[in-house]
Structure formats: C-alpha cells, structure tokens
Amino acid sequence: MSKIKTLNAERLSLIGFSLLFAYVLSFQFEGQVLYSLLELSKTDSDSYILLAIIAHFAGLFTSGIFIKSETSAKRMMLGGMGLCLIATVSFYFPLPTLWLIALLISGYFSGAAVAAWGYFLRAYTAKNERIKTCADALIYSNLLMIAVNVLAMNRSPLIGLSLSLLCLLLGMIFIGLLPQEQELKEQKSLSKKASASIKKPLFLLCLFVFIITINSGLMYQVFNPAFAHLTGLVSWYWAVPYIIALVIMRNLPRKVKRSGILYIGMAMIMGAFISFMLLGRDTADYLIVDTLMLGACGIFDLFWWSILGEMLDYGENPARTFGIGLSANVFGVLCGGVMGMAVTSIGLPGAEVAVIALAVVCVTLVMLPPLNRQLVLLLKNHAYLETYDTMSRSEQTNIVRQIKTLDPLTTREQEVLHEILSGKSNREIAETLFISENTVKTHARNIYSKYDVASRSELISNLLKNQTAE
After folding, report:
1. Which of 38, 235, 40 shows the shortest CA–CA distance to 145?
2. Which of 108, 377, 384, 416 can pair with 443 through a Cys bridge, CB separation 3.0 to 4.6 Å?
3. CATH number corresponding to 388-469
4. Comparing 19-28, 37-46, 120-129, 380-389, which segment has the lowest mean pLDDT?
5. 378 has a pLDDT exceeding 80
C-alpha cells in the first residue's frame, strides 16, 4: 500500500512540476508568450527579459534559505505558483510599468517553486530512477510549451497567456493533491563530513553548467532573431530536437556510457555555430542549426538535472542543492544573453560570434575530466559517469598495476582492492569474498597504508588520475 501511495505521489509531483515548468518556459523565462506580448505592445523587450531572468535566478539561488522541509516546500510551490498566477494576470492590461513589477514577482517565486521540487524529487523517486523522472519532467514541460507557443505566435499572444495561466492553475491542483504528511526519505544521520563532501563537486558542476550555457544565451539573442521570419516553423520545431535528444538519452540501456555522449553534444554545439556562420537564413538552414543546437541542449540539460537529482541524497536541504545547481544554468543564459545583446548592437559578424562560442566549448572540454573525477567520487554509479566497475577485468587490473605501492599487495589484498574500487561496502566485500567484516577492515587498512592514502576516496582519486592520464 505504501508503494502505491508513493507511486501516486510521484506522478502527482511530476505532473504538477511539469505544468509549473511549462509556464516558466512559455512565459517567464525567455518565453515566446512574453516576447509576443512585448512585441504586440511595442515595448523594448531586452530590459523586461533581463529583469525576469535575474529575478528567476534570485529565486532559485536563495530558496534554500527558507525552504527547509517538505511542508515548507509544498507551501512554497503552491504559494509561489499562486503569486505567479496573480502577477501574470496583469499582462492582460497595457500597463508596462506594472509588468516590470509582475515579472519581478513571478520570476522570483517561480524560481523558488522550481527549487522546492527538489524535496519531492528526493522523496518520491528512487535514486537510480531520477534520471528518468528528470527526463520526463523536461519532456512533458517542453511539449506543453510547444502547444502554448504555436497558439501564441500563430493565433494570439493573449491565447498563449491564457494557456500559460491554465498550466499554473492545473499545476497548483496537482501539487495540492500531494499527501500532507508524506514521510521523506531523509538521511537524518548525515554527518557534517558527508554534507560537506558535496561542495566541491557541486561547485565544479555549477561552473561547468554556467560556462556551457553561455552558448544558450547567445542562441536566444543571435540565432532566434536571425530566423524570426520563419514564425510558423520556429513556433513548433524549435524544441523538437531537444525533446528527441531527451527521449533518446532517457531510454539508452544502462550499460551505454553516456559520458562519451557529452563530447558529442559539444561537437554539436560547435557544428551549430559553424553552420550559422556558413549557411544562409532559409528553412533548411534553420533546421540544421536548430537541430544541432537544441539537440545538444537536451543532452546537457539531462546531464546536470540528473546529476543534481542524485546529489539530493548528499545534503540536508534538497531545495538548496537543486536551486543552486539550476541557478548556474540561468546565470549562464543571462550572461550569454547580455553578450548576445552586445554582439547584436555592434553588428559583430557571424564568424566572430562562432569564435566566441567555440572558445566557450573549448573551456568546457578542459573542465570535463576533472568534473568527471569529482562526480565519480560522489556518485559512483551514475549513468553519465565513467566508473571503475564498468571496465573489463583486464582494464581494471591494468589500472591497479599502474598505481605505485610502498609494498606489494598480497593476493587477498588485491581481491579486496578490486571490490573497494567497485564501490562495495565492507559488508558486501565480506559476503563476496566469504570473510568477516573485521578481516575486510584489516585488509583495507593495509591497502591504504601501502598506497600511502588515508581513505577510500583518496584511493579512488588516485585511480581516476591514472585513468584520465591514459
């Protein structure tokens, strides 16, 4: 019965969040509904868009300060969506000054509501299933966004606005149906050391996300205006490659190494900007550029969303972890958008824009190996990460032999080492090797001493350094 309740709560949470995020994508965060309304009222859109993004960033980044339980997370989602609903209604009236205030309110509280979902993602979705839940949330919200965009761009911005508000209203209903007292899968016994261990990987992930999403901001300000004359096609095709990439990544077999696909994504970003530089502005050109760019965005978005989903178990406040992680994405888009506005205002040639984008990709290429090492230490079995236990036995043996020891390992110590590096606990190693747990601990201490390390994480780090050097 409890499993059924959890499953139902998971579905309610997923649907409610997807509806909220559809509103964010279609209206608040560089949404086509907002663009269409600003264009209809002949209002300069740049200042409004930037204000909305800054407010959304602030909501994501600071939400963890006052969201500290599932109860407060639910209140924030309901209250934040309600305030977004009230604020967004002002766009039915031609009052640009009021719109600025409304964007501040809706931007901040939509960001806080998105971050609050971290509590429900951790509570209702098993750790190894979060990559699928994150993929589903992104797929559903983008499908809804396409429907809203088509009507807003081809029929009326007010129809699009009404649908965005309907998404908010329905989202509040689904979140409101979540159980009042659902027992969270809290890790009450988290030590300060375990909680602190997330800081470095999270910082590196945020830095990586920030840098690579600068290209997304450039895309909004450089790609989209260049193909603005293809209104009908852009309204529905824009997010299609993104959704297809998400579907493919979601359904890949577990044994497929998704880490290698990240490099394919980077190549696709390079290809998008080079194509934009060399091709024209016709329908076929748009299909090539958009397919490459949005397909890459789908690959990377699922990467960091799912990594953040796994990280929720390593901190005491899921809203803080989820919010800070996603705020890096928003900040990257903001900086890229400002850069794009500057590029557009000075009329920088497409070739130079491509050079900027390629430089950003090169920086992220350099960052990926150390980021992978830090994440593997924290999340040993995440689908995107290259881990020791995915190697063949011969590859494992070669890696181990390359690590210098102060004294040779005994045969039993070599067996224990292989199990340690596969991520098994002392109890699991004892069961595998048919020895006592105390004997495992003794062998482990001897192994650490011979490798001149103090812990498992340091041992694995040495392994990964050798793996990366190859």
Report:
1. 235
2. 416
3. 3.40.50.2300
4. 380-389
5. no
